[in-house]
Amino acid sequence: MRELNWVYYYSNVEKDQNQYTNEECTRVGPVDAKYVKSSNRDFNNNPFIEALPRPRDGNVLLNAYTVPIPSLDADDLSKMSVNEQKATVVSLKNLRLPLSFQKQLEFINYDVIVSSYMLRKSYVWDTNAIGESTDKKLIKMKGKIEDSAPSGFALLGYSGCGKSSSLKQLFDNIPQVIMHHPDPGTSIPQITYLVVSCMPNSNFSTLYRQIGEAIDNALGNTEPIYEVMINKKCKSLADKQLKVCQLIEMFSIGTIVMDEIQLIDFNSNRENSYEGLLGIVNKTKVALSVVGTDEAYKKLFTMLRNARRAGDFIDASAYTTDKDYFNMLVNMLLTWQWLDTPIQWSKELSDTLYECSGGIINMLIWLYKWIMLEYIDSKSKGKIETIDKKFIVRVNNKHFKQLKGAIDIVNQARTEELEDERILTIAEEEKNKYQMPESNISNMVYESKMMTKVIDLVREIYVEFDSDSIGKATRSDSIGKATRMVLEEDVNHRLKPHEVAKQVIAILNEEPVKPKRKATRRTPASKNICDYITDDN
């Protein structure tokens, strides 16, 4: 067994561009790897990371998560029959508006996948050396069992708040199967992600079968190969777990996302034990993320050691409490109207829609769709409706009467949650007055910035040290300790980064450093943390 490394070349693309085309990102089956040099030096020469598209931001992100539908003017509608007009209204179900949590989801997902690949390396075995007669090579991606397992993310929120659709838009930017070619005779598959949608009353045996099915779908297999391998050829749950581990290593799977976790059967019997799934994470270092409701998350992660693996929490429902954000969504929604006289945004209109939908995007679009359909129906009967509070409530009661109780519960729970947070915040503030230790935030920010700059300067001379070694350990003592020793002497922050680096290098080489006279600590002129964050010195 030996570690597999190879030389690859970078694609020339703009910083805000994806190295893959839209067709390559949505293609079923493998896509040849295209590499982009990462600005993070720790990621350089790691093909499994540098073959990944970078997370989107700014207008690129906004445009990616906004999926408009064709708009029609009054002349177009006048030429259509009633049923034709209704058919165009149904397109609203394909409309996607940007939601506030999507930027966080975009970056955290990239961080999750990258962290997983940082913990693993590709190894190659010559099959004739392990008792097989062929000259083929066996290549697997493995992590060290003693390393900590990577964390995923937990995307949680109300049903209909946009979790699953956002997940699809997220992965539409990443090829699911990337094929690496270290040399002309070798191909290494990298399945960047798997999304497993949990089935009603499913258990973890079913989940393992679905992982096999997801692998088949990603590879474009016309007949189920890996699903059958897990479901029929593995008799016990332990066998299924072992086979899943082997497939993760074989296909270099980066992350597995469990969607709709509220559908899992949470009985505490052995077969449904979440510990088995976490055992796979420990062994393979694949990242595991979950998507679903808060209630299911609490059942799944009752133990702290399990909850820790879920990683970053993303509150997908947070936007539903932001009235200003909801007003913006309504304004965008009003772009598409099937009315004789277009209506403009008003506080009454927005407040009524909010009351009926609970601020949930799916409910808002559903309600808006039926408002337009009811308007077209009434118009066909010779009655022109006024889109006011009375009409909206009538439509809501007609089509969503069964959901009114659920919306009321959401609104009540939101009110109680906000009140609980207010009480806890006040209590924590009172507690902190007596128990919170004092810390010099400005010094912490300054030290963090200086440490980063010193690391870059020192690495230019000592390329054998990575950022961890520079920040934590040295030949004789600790480079981090050496850096902090210099910074502690420089209490007035007068040294430039290259001056600090020079003294750190002297300590690395065990050269004597001329001691500096300690100066009296000076209180910063400003207590605004932004002054230190933006300070380039």
Topology:
Blueprint: E1 2-3, H1 22-26, E2 30-32, H2 47-50, H3 58-64, H4 74-78, H5 82-89, H6 102-118, E3 120-126, E4 137-143, E5 153-156, H7 163-171, E6 177-183, E7 186-191, E8 193-197, H8 204-219, H9 226-231, H10 237-250, E9 255-259, H11 274-284, E10 287-292, H12 294-300, H13 304-307, E11 312-315, H14 323-333, H15 347-357, H16 361-380, H17 389-399, H18 404-435, H19 441-461, H20 467-472, H21 479-489, H22 497-508, H23 529-533
Parallel strand pairs: 2-6, 5-10, 5-11, 8-9, 9-10
Antiparallel strand pairs: 1-3, 3-4, 6-7
Describe what is shown at a glance.
By secondary structure, the protein is an alpha/beta fold. 47% of the residues lie in helices and 10% in strands.
How would you explain this protein's 3D organization?
The structure is a single chain. The longest helix is centred in the last third of the chain and has 32 residues, at 404-435. The chain has helices at 22-26, 47-50, 58-64, 74-78, 82-89, 102-118, 163-171, 204-219, 226-231, 237-250, 274-284, 294-300, 304-307, 323-333, 347-357, 361-380, 389-399, 404-435, 441-461, 467-472, 479-489, 497-508, 529-533; strands spanning 2-3, 30-32, 120-126, 137-143, 153-156, 177-183, 186-191, 193-197, 255-259, 287-292, 312-315. It contains 23 helices and 11 strands. The relative contact order is 0.08. Helix content is 47%, strand content 10%. The strands form 3 sheets. It has a 5-stranded parallel β-sheet with strand order 8-9-10-5-11, sandwiched between helices. A 3-stranded antiparallel β-sheet has the order 1-3-4.
